[in-house]
């Protein structure tokens, strides 16, 4: 018995030590905090002066989607009368996505408009977050700088909304950083929001035009957003605002900060950041800031040897021959915008192949059929991403917006003077450069109607003269491939009524894209746009 | 049988026995008495509790305690003890003058006696109250198996093991009791000798048995990752008192592609040109050659495996050491997988068995060709071989690869041959454990494991690769390395007590686990020569040009748990097990890290009741019921944290600076996904083991299921968030039936049949935090150019529903005619996403298998058959390639009239025409072995040779390569067009024991 007791004692002693060890080890081993190594947690993040810029940067970077895969360029140009992406021997049916864009038969899963929606709201979300951080005082920024920063962010938000009002119209307005599922606003409300915001923040914006404002919105950039929205006010709200557009344009013109670039091609060259007419640029860089691959989508694969490219282009989109035919004799912009005729090997100078104007149909065209866009300089040794900055707003557009507003308010003579001023750099012959008010009030020179496989008009469709159609042509020649054709065509009533290439009109409702199915699915407050 | 009855009599007569003992005691009081003690163990050194120890010819008997120990005082003058226990062969030992008699009982072939591994311990099969299946090495699938899961393919009811890929580096796909988690993971917890590992931690030839814990009451003790079941791998060990042996196993396998898709060959294409077909893209023109592209990139693969295992030891120490080498070739040229595994396992017991220790080391090295940057085979090559124009030559006259300027169209032979790559992995695991028994019924065990693996990768595309010839990269190289380190420790205290008919066990424990992953990656281009490949990466000019890539990462996570379990049984008749685990994961939100996972199960062995006791034909009849809660950890680290990353560049004042942007939509409320499972089961053994089986019914509901949930943009920055939103239910029935229809001296035929059903339903996808307008979301994706989702996941419906346009007819012009959900027939060109409907389901409703093993004299024959029934497959190859209008080569069937009416002129579409029934029955494995008589050769104990075939024949109506397609995730049943085709394998092997 004694022995037994002894065993128990001994055992108790051992267990005691063991339990002690156990509890000691447990005490240190119940900590489940996450250890973070290659991320920065918001909790532990202390912003420095540099980080304020980095945070603001996130508001701008989404804009680089413009010239990217199925970006704003595609949304604005694929449904227009200038670009067609036909099926070619190397593909480009892509599930019919380009045909739907050309025919205006998209539905709520069409990626191009969804991409625009998601990208704009990404920018808006980042803007709202930065504003809330500034206003909550969590960033080391003094009051004066804070005001300027908030004003710039609000102007940029207005820019994103100026895209959304154009593509989707009835979109949610988010003016605060919040998790709440937003409600939908009407297109008129969105219009009022943009105008109200810009009017409010413009006085606080920088008037500087230098390195520090390049690629960012200054006062004049914000004014141009305002002018652009006023220009399209009738399309957006039913109420034209031509005079307000003129006022905004005049303010930019009178600032004297910008002038027409004497050389049209220089506005679009690889190092175009020095162009005197760029009001707001979206900077790209082949190394740092990729994303510009619109040239890859357009050039034919064989163009690799023409430009000694470090990537083989994909060879899809080219120009509708009807638009090419509309150019006037002597307009240098034709050759400055399109790759035409023999294409030479960069090394040997020999003709590799020849670009021809005709493209039989969107269902099947050859590799070298249809002129390709060369407007944005493709330097020798170009990569799959270009370094050209996208001239989102340029001074010519200010002049042309003013001209159009004047034209539409009965001042065609003044309008013609401005248009002539713009045309002068693109014509060697002054007489040819000069247009009259009467000409501008005339019909378009584009021969609308569907084409047969030989390029002849198959069905002319609606042949009603286009009011101020000739001015629309001027916009086309000047702003070809600048991701705006759709907006201009809608404003002139061509988009919804005319036939071109293989396209026939589908009705007024197509002036807005449908809201994406996933967006409708996840946000019960959203109503689909009419007609879809 | 005899031993079984023996025990039963002993137990049932025990009141009388006591009287008898008293009587005899008084009568024979004058005879010499002797006290004998000892321990009873099984062949593996596991103590066997409850063994009846009787003195022969005298009514005197005791039972062993839970450590297998007994003490008996003999009554007779020449006493001899009989040790008997259910399912073990009885042993009789003369006492003579011994005072200690330790006994190792040999297993009788009956299943009931099996010791089942139940997690942190073992249990006799007879006492198990939950659904646990055990497969011993003798019953493993033989042949060239890819990993441990394939060893038990078709052997466990409710465990679906499929091998959809023939990639030599791919493992088997396993799923237990349906899709229980929608976050995508269906991987069970794999424990290798008690430590979390993988199905590839040890070589298949080194495995002694695999236990599968199926229901929640069994897996709740593993709380965390128990939802998809727990697979417990026990490696071969030396056991006790065994003369040293060396086993040598070797085999060589020949694999070939199991089934080829029937694409147009050159003659076939020319015939189409003659028939007036014109094509865009690949088949635009005749290039004059005849090339079988698939043939050019495939081969008959030869693989070999060698395994040597040494086992030996004595009463106190034993050692197991093994070396395994496997060299697997893939059916695509260059693909391979070489693996070396070494393992040493040492057991030692001292202080009268009070202290037992185990030391083990597993080291393995693996090396394989990488056709993709970091992975084995680039499926892009397979796709290119299928879609390439068969009239194209392989090379130009100057020897360079023949290439054309077509989008996503590259010479597959050149693509593969101009790629150089290798991944090499080193895995290491060392563990030590000590168990101390201060008193008989108590054991304290500590275990510590340090695990690690690292890999180094190298990849190079030469200047003749399309990356240069088309895209000007001028030689592309990358190198990368990953490193993983993990600590795992557990501390358990086990207490067993046996008081008359009451048997208790109690367990408490603590578990700690941490895992740290880090890695580095770099890439470069523009090399002056191909000579370095990836071995001198700094030479590339990509670095100064700003075109080199570089990255590194590090992350970590922790799991900590406290757990406890008790079992109780009364007279081996009424059984109870209850457990709870309190576990925390670092991956969840600050307030939601910890969760509780209880489990309880009860059993009733009806055959022990008086009214059945005398039924001689009934050896065992057990009813079981259990309920358990298990959890699923978040799939990735840091999902609950708001964090920022420096990302894209922005031009600021002429300088490019990086933006700072949130990494994700963080969810601070992230918590455990929990599965509640109810299981009832029945086990039976009849006619002396000739007929046995079990039946289980389960009903499992997964709550707070983790899902990368769609959220609206705006207000969210990103379109998804990881959240606990969904609720899922799975119900099913599992049956397995083991029979021995023939058992004679020369001929034994064993047959195991399994059958299982699974019914799956999504209960909800909303919670208080996230409300959706729609009670569904889409999953699966066709890819370009069709660009449609393939499945719908809808509340009230099962996972796996195909959702698309229902094709019913074709216009004379060759355009699909679609039946809309409201019954209208419209051309597909006028259809929209609103016209889609449910077209079938990709998850089998029934699984069955039938495994036969026949032994005749020295011959053995195994035939395994397995099937899955009542499900559909979306045949991607047909959807993409059975269309004469595409820009690439087509299937021969593309020119057949659809519905017998018209050849297709429509674009590629996702329509129901491509959804086929997937039901299949496979003769999966046939193995014929012969054991050579080696009695005349002293040093050889066993010598067997065998031939085996895997994936031999498939009976199915499915027209694709293999009806066994992906079943996991939310888009099951998609037979992807780039899927590495499955293989047919023939193996010749030898087993040799010295």
CATH fold description of one domain in chain B: Immunoglobulin-like
What percent strand of chain A?
5-15%
Tell me the overall shape of chain B. Answer: globular
Distance between the termini of chain A: 93 Å
Please tell me the overall pLDDT of chain B.
87
Largest sheet of chain A: 3 strands, mixed
- The assigned CATH architecture of chain A is Alpha Horseshoe
Mean residue pLDDT of chain A? 92
Structural class of chain B: mainly beta
CA-based gyration radius of chain A: 29 Å
CATH level-1 class of chain A: Mainly Alpha
Number of domains of chain A: 1
CATH superfamily placement of one domain in chain B: Carboxypeptidase-like, regulatory domain
For the sheet with most strands of chain B, the description reads: 22 strands, antiparallel, barrel
Oligomer description: heterodimer
Write the layout of secondary structure elements.
The complex is a heterodimer of chains A (532) and B (994).
Chain A: H1 2-27, E1 40-41, H2 49-60, H3 72-77, E2 83-84, H4 97-103, H5 111-135, H6 143-167, H7 187-201, H8 219-231, H9 233-237, H10 242-255, E3 278-282, H11 294-298, H12 303-306, E4 318-319, H13 321-326, H14 333-337, E5 338-339, E6 341-344, E7 351-355, E8 372-373, E9 390-394, H15 395-408, H16 412-423, H17 430-433, H18 437-441, E10 449-451, E11 457-459, H19 469-479, H20 485-491, E12 500-501, H21 517-522
Parallel strand pairs in A: 10-12
Antiparallel strand pairs in A: 2-4, 3-9, 5-8, 6-7, 10-11
Helix pairs in contact in A: 2-5, 5-6, 6-7, 6-8, 7-8, 8-10, 8-15, 10-15, 15-16
Chain B: H1 2-12, H2 14-27, E1 34-42, E2 52-55, E3 61-63, E4 69-74, E5 80-84, E6 91-94, E7 103-105, E8 115-117, E9 122-124, E10 132-136, H3 148-151, E11 159-162, E12 173-176, E13 189-192, E14 195-196, E15 207-213, H4 216-219, E16 230-235, E17 245-257, H5 266-274, H6 293-297, E18 301-313, E19 317-329, E20 336-350, E21 355-369, H7 379-387, H8 412-417, E22 419-436, E23 442-461, H9 466-469, E24 476-499, E25 502-525, H10 542-545, E26 549-570, E27 574-585, E28 594-605, H11 610-613, E29 618-632, E30 643-652, E31 655-662, E32 673-686, E33 691-710, E34 720-743, E35 747-757, E36 759-764, E37 776-779, E38 791-794, E39 801-804, E40 806-810, E41 816-819, E42 825-827, E43 837-841, E44 846-856, E45 859-869, E46 872-875, H12 876-881, E47 915-917, E48 920-931, E49 942-956, E50 974-975, E51 983-993
Parallel strand pairs in B: 1-7, 13-16, 46-50
Antiparallel strand pairs in B: 1-4, 2-3, 2-5, 5-6, 8-9, 10-15, 11-12, 13-14, 15-16, 17-18, 17-51, 18-19, 19-20, 20-21, 21-22, 22-23, 23-24, 24-25, 25-26, 26-27, 27-28, 28-29, 29-32, 30-31, 32-33, 33-34, 34-35, 34-36, 35-44, 37-38, 38-39, 39-43, 40-41, 41-42, 44-45, 45-48, 46-47, 48-49, 49-51
